[in-house]
Amino acid sequence: MMATLEHTNFTVRDPKASAAWMQKVFGWKTRWEGPAIAGGYTVHVGSPHTYLALYAPSDPKPSGESSYDIVGGLNHVGVLVEDIDATEDKVRQAGFKPHNHADYEPGKRFYFEDDNGIEFEVVQYD
């Protein structure tokens, strides 16, 4: 039996704002939102089967560190799409700058950072 990734939880400045751009860019829906640990707030945004839990503590602080240099750091979130060109247009409309475009097995991809400094890899399989 194979396991399936159900969700990932990470810290953002404003969960509602992050969920809003993800809804526009990826077509996701808010599954749940409400108060969370340590006086924070969380929004679950995604599909009926998988989602991102976007958490903000009561007083968020930017890291300023590279996740690639820290054991346990979140390096990027990979999102599989059906139309990479249309998604790239939506990423630009959301105010983010796509970069590192590549085309190798199993498909095309590009990256962008959101306003929290979280890197996303957008992939379309051939």
Automatic annotation (TrEMBL):
Taxonomic superkingdom: Bacteria
Domain VOC per the UniProt entry, residue ranges: 4-125
Keyword annotations: Metal-binding
Signal peptide positions on this chain: none
SUPFAM superfamilies: Glyoxalase/Bleomycin resistance protein/Dihydroxybiphenyl dioxygenase (SSF54593)
Presence of keyword Signal: no
InterPro entries in alphabetical order: Glyas_Bleomycin-R_OHBP_Dase (IPR029068), Glyas_Fos-R_dOase_dom (IPR004360), MMCE/EMCE_epimerase (IPR051785), VOC_core (IPR037523)
CDD domains: VOC
Protein name per its UniProtKB record: VOC family protein
Organism whose genome encodes this protein: Ruegeria haliotis
